[in-house]
Write a structure and sequence with these properties.
The chain is an all-alpha fold and 434 residues long. It contains 20 helices and no strands. The two termini are 38 Å apart.
Length: 434
């Protein structure tokens, strides 16, 4: 190991271990590397800023964050929950099923697992814990696990990141996530049904069609959002970035004109929150660019690519190795860092082995889903326990079963690429025979 890469690793490990934000840790390590190697810091900063400012696709990220903020603040979430409760609440463990369905729908508007957890996930978990109807650990766990659907469901912010990293089609990735997301939601609901039957969890009162139809019409404008978004992208009317702007405009229309549930003063605070979250993401991406420059400058991607190709791995063996590596890394590193630092090293190897980058992207998203709820570092577990003031130990007892469900879906998608590629092939984004 060279002196430069030793400095990079040590500074990063120490910074992250001291609790320094991940973006600043990566920036600090990257700059320490360049000073150690006597390289021009200004040149790398210039390349980093150009990489951020010249990528049109990245503009969609703050717009989708803004959509999620609007939907949470304008009462749309409650309308979606009422509709979901009327349709699936009648099953045993009904509110846990509502959690999955509402998060699946809301993911089609927010693009963020954290937004899903702190929106519908938080509301449903509180409903579940009210009067002790469900154990707190189970309620919080189902909210966290349901929110993991966010990276798969378009418009997924992690998919946008991956598209920038791998050069894969964002439109193809959005299509590729739909079937795995629906199948994963179904698998989670089957798992909930098994637990609910064993533990005799309650079911909600069955709603009649006379009750469901008015709730559906109240929620319909919000339910149309994912279809509107995908329709304008795949019809060729707009690019994903332009579609994000249209989605934000539509969300503003719902909040101020259709539902009339948001005051102008609240809008300014939502814009400020969006700017704050976007700045945080920008800092992480800047750190990742500098960090990746150091890694590439040391020739690590080429060395790793040569080593793995010399092992003569098949594509499936490589994907299984990637799954294992990413899950192990998720125990100690957050998912955004893995996506921005580790995945750029892996995509050239996947290409060399003939693995479709759209399929590979879905594999990465499924790994991120596992990492979001994998103890001890699972981000969504900490988000939900903090919001609900629930003990982490109670959540850690409940989460292994659901991690098992997610891993099963990960392995199925690894061995059966058509789960991810059927829709991209059908719409012509991936060639037949891929």
């Amino acid at each position: 190991m060279s002196y430069g890469i030793t400095v990079l690793a040590m500074v990063f490990i120490v910074s992250a271990g001291l609790g320094v934000p991940m973006g600043i840790s990566m920036l600090t390590a990257g700059f320490a590397y360049m000073f150690a190697k006597h390289q021009d810091v200004g040149l790398v900063v210039d390349q980093t800023m150009n990489g951020l400012s010249n990528n049109y696709l990245l503009l969609s990220i703050p717009l989708f964050i803004f959509v999620a903020q609007l939907m949470n603040a304008s009462g749309v979430t409650e309308r979606l929950l009422a509709f979901a409760q009327a349709t699936v609440g009648r099953f045993r463990g009904g509110l846990a099923h509502v959690n999955v369905v509402s998060n699946l729908i809301f993911s089609g508007m927010s693009g963020s697992a954290v937004a899903d957890a702190s929106g519908p996930g938080l509301i449903v978990s509180r409903m579940m814990m009210k009067n002790g109807r469900y154990p707190a650990g189970f309620a919080v766990t189902t909210s966290a696990v349901s929110a993991t659907l966010g990276p798969l469901v378009p418009p997924s912010i992690p998919m946008i990141f991956y598209s920038v990293i791998a050069g894969a089609s964002t439109s193809a990735l959005f299509l590729a996530g739909i079937v795995p997301a629906v199948l994963t939601a179904g698998a989670l609901m089957i798992g909930i049904s098994i637990i609910a039957k064993r533990r005799n969890f309650p079911a909600e009162a069955a709603a009649s069609w006379l009750q469901i139809i008015p709730l559906m019409f109240k929620a319909l404008p919000a339910l149309l959002m994912p279809g509107l978004l995908l329709g304008i992208i795949y019809s060729g009317i707009a690019t994903p970035t332009e579609a994000a702007a249209i989605a934000a405009s539509y969300a503003l229309f719902l909040a101020f004109v259709f539902y009339r549930s948001l005051h102008i003063n609240r809008l300014f605070s939502l814009i400020a929150e969006t700017v704050g979250q976007t700045a945080s993401i920008g800092l992480i991406m800047s750190g990742a660019f500098v960090f990746n420059y150091a890694v590439a400058n040391e020739g690590i991607p080429v060395l790793l690519k040569t080593t793995l190709l010399n092992w003569h791995l098949t594509s499936v063996q490589f994907l299984l190795a990637v799954n294992l590596i990413l899950i192990l890394l998720a125990v100690i590193i957050d998912e955004v860092t893995i996506l921005l630092v580790i995945v750029p090293v892996l995509t050239p190897i996947a290409t060399a082995l003939g693995i479709d980058l759209v399929h590979f992207g879905v594999i990465i998203m499924l790994n991120m889903m596992v990492g979001l709820v994998l103890p001890p570092h699972g981000l969504l577990l900490f988000v939900m326990t903090n919001l609900t003031e629930t003990s982490l130990s109670d959540v850690f007892k409940e989460v292994p079963f659901f991690i098992g469900v997610l891993i099963i879906m990960l392995l199925l998608t690894t061995f059966i690429p058509d789960i991810a590629l059927t829709l991209p092939v059908f719409f012509g984004y991936v060639p037949l025979g891929h």
